[in-house]
Amino acid sequence: xxxxxSVWRRLSKLTERVMNALFFLCGMTAIVFVLLITLYLAAAxxxxxREIGLIxxxxxxxxxxxxxxxxxxxxxxxxxSVYGTAGAVLLGVPAGVLCAVYxxxxxxxxxxxxxxxxxxxLAGVPSVVYGLLGIIVLVPFIADVFxxxxxxxxxCAMLVLTVMILPSIISISETALRAVPQEYExxxxxxxxxxxxxxxxxxxxxxxxxxxxxxxLGVGRAIGEAMAVMMVAGNIPNMPGLFKxxxxxxxVIAQEMSYxxxxxxxxLFSIALVLFVFIMAINFLLHxxxxxxxxx
Length: 296
Known about the structure:
By secondary structure, the protein is mainly α. Helices cover about 80% and strands about 0% of the residues. It has twelve helices and two strands, in the order H-H-E-E-H-H-H-H-H-H-H-H-H-H. Strands 1-2 form a two-stranded antiparallel ribbon. Helix 4 crosses helix 6 and helix 6 packs antiparallel against helix 9. It is globular, with a radius of gyration of 24 Å.
């Protein structure tokens, strides 16, 4: 028996070492890929920024890459991406978090299973399908309601992005809410708080790190989405307006990369570099806010 126990202990230690090495290798691989992507985008995008000029590139009011006298100002694209993402987050985060709270804490088991399957189905729908539904349903609806010549606009893109980020926010927030220890709720109820008060004032704050992770993923998908937005936004590089046809950073890259060349192609890589830096800055900012909240 002692020999068998010693053999099992050695095997368990060996298995633990192998798994630790494997996880370390996976983590380092991810870091290496991020560094390689960063280096490639920097090498491909910086030459165009040098030729155009950083100020003219970032703050230029016009994007006319195929004109006889081309201009490569991406300020309208940046503002459109910021406004579109902010609008989707403002609409999607409250709806997603409240839906997660309902599924985790209030819904009947059968209803929760059914709704959870619908959320998983939404997560698996291709972005092209969202774009087609937007063209068929949202674009004519917005044109009729607001009496516009075309309903393809920033508002339509915001609504489509709102629906697309909901599955990430709901699923991750629900998982975080279910991971909160039951003792927290029992202590709150024992002190005389009602169940809704306990959920919103104890459970939800305790799960804020997981909820924030879901929001970060939702923001990343909203910023990085191209196909669905390209189908409903109108694809005209105007300064952003709620009912204007607009272009996002991602849609310009998707539209023009196939036929681009020379400085235009380099400028598209510069847009990708700006988009990458933008996403990284948002992630670092959200993590910094979370760390400050945990210290408090």
